[in-house]
């Protein structure tokens, strides 16, 4: 096993990151949300069941996948547009499903873009029959070219934190009756491995057992196995980042090319940063938000970028937020210093806040917070926000009763979720609030 190799490498990376953070006071996360690993679910051949069965399953857990369509197989365009509207990625799997893409690298991208509107257009492709086509045509049109199992080409199945060595050969592990992954445990085992190695794993699924699969009849997968995998991911959401191929690829490319640098001349109670990269191609905008942490003694902060207020949290001497590269100066402001005392609605004194955020065991926090004033509300910018939930489980349900967010209480005030207008239920510990996002 190469376990030793992995742990030595991650220690070295950790040390480098720590010294860079000390020098710059700011650090870009390896993965979104400072999670430890990433996983992408991809679905080939545009099966009817992808719309009718995969979509609702992913919706249940709030995760997004990648759906690779074959133009000439007449996919359910409006159904897949619906998935795109919910934040899933629609991607290419060629026009005719011929070997080596039959030269359809550019034309299939165009054809699908004629049917499907999504933010970045069609930016990733999965090769029919696992054959790598013209690599330069792929890389002129897509940020990811997906093969099948890496091990089928003498590579490894999972990737490291920087993705594949060649973006035209991004591996994904086949699932289902003909594939390596059949059960929930098979999926979660792979996700546990990338959490340990700080890597990225992608899954390749066709249709589902007992569902309407159209042309996607190769290697059907038990949908319950995927349901269980997503359930596990949700329970481990602080460690595993589940996101479409295009999102993860953008994040990696931006993270590798970006620098976050402090700016001189800030006022005493503000810190100003620039987050920049110079990636330029005609495929993507590379404006996927990167997760940042900045060292601070402040217990309450407000973070803005340009005109936008960013969701942030303070924990363990850092402020955490997501910012978009090349989108203007980031300003971190000491909110305690800026706000007049009487206008603060937070019931706790600032000294107890400081004590709590530096304390690290849940048990201590719960004891210290006996008789705490729990609160949940929708703030002016439309975020479901909770107060004094340190150490408690927070769950947000939509009006159908589906769980759309689970997290742990951190910090005295915490933005938890924002989404479409409607009624939501937020549960903190064993208490619940019904809230409306307008
Ligand atoms: Zn296929």
Short description:
The chain has 438 residues and is α/β, with parallel strands linked by helices. It contains eleven helices and 24 strands.
Give a structural overview.
The chain has 438 residues and is an alpha/beta fold. The chain has three domains: 34-251, Alpha-Beta Barrel (TIM Barrel); 260-342, no CATH class; 351-437, Immunoglobulin-like. The chain is 28% helix and 26% strand. It has eleven helices and 24 strands. Helix 2 (48-61) packs parallel to helix 3 and helix 6 (184-197) packs parallel to helix 7. Bound molecules: zinc ion. Zinc ion binds at residues 44-45, 93, 97, 128.
Question: Topology of this structure?
Answer:
Blueprint: H1 3-24, E1 26-28, E2 37-44, H2 48-61, E3 66-69, H3 77-85, E4 89-92, H4 105-115, E5 124-126, H5 135-141, E6 144-146, E7 173-174, H6 184-197, E8 200-205, H7 223-235, E9 240-242, H8 245-257, E10 259-262, E11 270-276, E12 290-295, E13 301-305, E14 308-310, E15 312-315, E16 318-323, E17 330-334, H9 335-338, H10 350-358, H11 362-368, E18 375-378, E19 384-387, E20 393-397, E21 403-408, E22 413-417, E23 422-428, E24 431-437
Parallel strand pairs: 2-3, 2-8, 2-9, 3-4, 5-6, 7-8
Antiparallel strand pairs: 1-12, 10-11, 11-17, 12-16, 13-14, 13-17, 15-16, 18-19, 19-22, 20-21, 20-23, 23-24
Helix pairs in contact: 2-3, 2-7, 6-7
Bound molecules: zinc ion.
Zinc ion (ZN) is lined by residues 44-45, 93, 97, 128.
């Amino acid at each position: 096993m190469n376990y030793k190799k992995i742990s030595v490498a991650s220690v070295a990376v950790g040390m480098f990151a720590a010294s860079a953070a000390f020098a710059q006071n700011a650090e870009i996360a390896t993965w979104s949300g400072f999670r430890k690993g990433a996983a992408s679910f991809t679905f080939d051949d545009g099966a009817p069941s992808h719309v009718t069965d995969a979509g609702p399953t992913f919706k249940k857990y709030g995760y997004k996948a990648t759906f690779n369509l074959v133009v000439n197989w007449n996919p359910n365009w409006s159904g897949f547009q619906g998935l795109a509207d919910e934040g899933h990625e629609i991607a290419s799997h060629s026009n005719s499903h011929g070997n080596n893409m039959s030269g359809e690298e550019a034309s299939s991208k165009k054809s699908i873009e004629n049917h499907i509107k999504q933010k970045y257009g069609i930016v990733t492709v999965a090769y029919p029959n696992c054959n790598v086509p013209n690599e330069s045509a792929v890389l002129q049109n897509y940020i990811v070219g997906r093969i099948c199992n890496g091990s089928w080409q003498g590579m490894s199945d999972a990737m490291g934190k920087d993705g594949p060595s060649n973006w035209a050969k991004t591996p994904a592990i086949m699932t289902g009756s003909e594939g390596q992954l059949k059960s929930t445990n098979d999926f979660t085992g792979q996700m546990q491995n990338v959490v340990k190695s700080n890597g990225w794993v992608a899954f390749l699924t066709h249709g589902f057992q007992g569902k309407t699969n159209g042309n996607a009849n190769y290697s059907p997968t038990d949908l319950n196995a995927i349901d269980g995998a997503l359930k596990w991911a949700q329970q481990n959401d602080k460690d595993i980042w589940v996101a479409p191929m295009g999102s993860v690829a953008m994040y990696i490319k931006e993270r590798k090319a970006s620098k976050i640098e402090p700016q001189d001349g800030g006022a005493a109670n503000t810190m100003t940063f620039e987050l920049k990269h110079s990636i330029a191609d005609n495929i993507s905008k590379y404006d996927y938000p990167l997760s940042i942490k900045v060292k601070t003694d402040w217990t309450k902060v407000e973070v803005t970028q340009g005109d936008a207020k960013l969701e942030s949290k303070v924990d363990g001497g850092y402020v955490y937020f997501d910012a978009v590269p090349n989108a203007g100066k980031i300003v971190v402001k000491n909110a305690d210093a800026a706000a007049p005392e009487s206008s603060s609605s937070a019931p706790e004194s600032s000294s107890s806040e400081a004590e709590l955020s530096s304390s690290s065991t849940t048990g201590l926090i719960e004891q210290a917070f006996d008789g705490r004033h729990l609160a949940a509300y929708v703030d002016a910018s439309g975020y479901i926000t909770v107060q004094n939930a340190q150490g408690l489980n927070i769950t947000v349900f939509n009006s159908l009763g589906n769980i759309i967010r689970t997290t742990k209480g951190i910090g005295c005030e915490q933005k938890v979720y924002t989404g479409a207008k409607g009624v939501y239920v937020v549960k903190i510990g064993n208490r619940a609030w019904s809230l409306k996002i307008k």
